[in-house]
Amino acid sequence: MSDVVLKIEHLVKRFDDQTVLKDISLTVREGEVIVVVGPSGCGKSTLLRCINALEEIQGGKILLNGSSVSRESRNLSEIRQKIGMVFQSYELFPHLNVLDNIILAPTKVQKRSREEAKVEALALLSRVGLLEKANSFPRQLSGGQKQRVAIVRALCMHPEIMLFDEVTAALDPEMVREVLDVILGLAGQGKTMIIVTHEMQFARAVADRVIFLDEGVIKEEGEPDQFFDHPKTERAKEFLRTFTFERKHTHS
Amino acid sequence: MFSEMFMKLWDNGLIQKGVWETIYMTVLSTAISYCIGLPLGVILNITDKEGIRPLPLFNRILGLVVNFFRSIPFIILMVAMLPVAKLIVGVSLGNKAMIVMLVIAASPYVARMVESSLKEVDAGVIEAAQSMGTNNFQIIWKVLLPEAKPSLITGAVISMVTILGYSAMAATIGGTGLGQIAISYGHQRFNPDVTWCCVFLTVIIVQIIQEVGNRIVRRTDKRHRA
């Protein structure tokens, strides 16, 4: 078995008196692709935000390669550099062009040379088909292009794990594909990833393991085929039914 | 057509001198006010409970101090701060003292302007920067300030015009510039043409500040231009 990259133990997250995540435990091994699905408000995004210490946690532990991830960690910056996060609404820096968006953190945070970061950024951009957009500003890009740039921006930091937070939820349908293809490509290269998504077909194709989250707890966990074809819990069945459509025939 | 007084002032170059004094006081006071108000505004923004370095109690206290100075009408603040001016520049009269007053009055104003400009920066973008491991210092210099630049410049133009207005008021307790000419030669000696000339020149100065500011904003704003 390959090495454990991320280990979450008994994670509890509360907002005021509302408990959003109750006792979540999860182990992610190197090269594994975990897809987290579940109804809106079940805590999927919060889970990802906790892994990146964007949220304070009220209980349990999150360990990345054995070192604790929390807002109090002394080496928080180093830990965060190893966790690449891609957001639903891209969050590119509007005042910087595509290339500068990508190399800002590598040069300022990781203190890499501008030249070296640029070479890598351009190589990554060409891999996602956006080389000619290197000098464009975010406002000149489509949603799908922005999201591909955001993925490149995260990749350029050489993260050990990538987190995708509903990255296609804000996109027009015809742009979803180009973004998901990039993520599928990364899965093919053996990147360790946790993906929160509502695209069930994609989830099935990309996942090594599916986590079904509901009301702040992991209700079900399993291989994609098993989860999608034979969900064990009633709640998961009900959830999956919301993605299938049947036309009701009313012959008279 | 013009009064005798106007011709005398013009021939002796007093009106021209007034223009320069007004510009000098305004620009210098604005510059110093930003040296104080910009860091103050940044601190107000980042220590807010939604900021990147929340310090609620400190933020409340600093906010109260800023509000205290902002609530005092300028004309009263000037009189009250005369001893302070004397302490800092050694005199309580003339332009040097006036610049001290203007800075005291304008810095809290600038701080609030800066704070509100920084508030416009998308919280998601700041989180994205944090998620890549940037520290607070890097966020301030590489994200917050550059991101808010167009708005900061718009604020600077508004602040400068406000300070220009204040500088005219400073004439009542010994400041110079167009305000002083309008009050002592125009108003007090019944020469409306002198007053109107000062008004006209002030309007031109304001227009120039506004136009230059707009141009800089247009050039720096990368966000919306199609």
Description:
The complex is a heterodimer of chains A (252) and B (226). With 252 residues, chain A is α/β, with parallel strands linked by helices. Chain A is 35% helix and 25% strand. Chain A has 9 helices and 10 strands. In chain A, a hairpin with a 2-residue loop joins strand 1 and strand 2. Chain B is 80% helix and 0% strand. In chain B, helix 2 runs antiparallel to helix 8 and helix 6 crosses helix 8. Chain B has one domain: MetI-like (MetI-like fold), CATH 1.10.3720.10. With 226 residues, chain B is mainly alpha-helical. The chains are: A alpha/beta (252), B mainly alpha (226). Chains A and B meet through helix 2, helix 3 and helix 5 of A and helix 7 and helix 8 of B.
Key attributes of the depicted protein:
heterodimer; A: 252 residues; 4-stranded antiparallel beta sheet; 10 strands; globular; B: mainly alpha; 10 helices; elongated
The proportion of residues forming helix of chain A, as a percent range, comes to: 25-40%
Number of helices, counting only DSSP H or I runs of 4 residues or more of chain A: 9
The computed structural class of chain A is alpha/beta
Structural class of chain B: mainly alpha
- Indicate how many domains the architecture of chain B comprises: 1
- Report the uncertain regions of chain B: none
Radius of gyration of chain A: 19 Å
Q: Could you give a short account of the major beta sheet of chain B?
A: none
- What's the number of extended β-strand segments of chain B? 0
Q: State the assembly state of the protein chains.
A: heterodimer
Rounded to an integer, what's the Rg of chain B over CA atoms?
A: 21 Å
Query: Mind summarizing the main beta sheet of chain A?
Result: 6 strands, mixed
What is the second-level CATH architecture of chain B?
A: Orthogonal Bundle
CATH first level of chain B: which class? Mainly Alpha
Strand content of chain A: 15-25%
CA-based shape of chain A: globular
Total strand count of chain A, please?
10
What is the straight-line distance between the termini of chain B? 51 Å
| Contiguous helical run count of chain B | 10
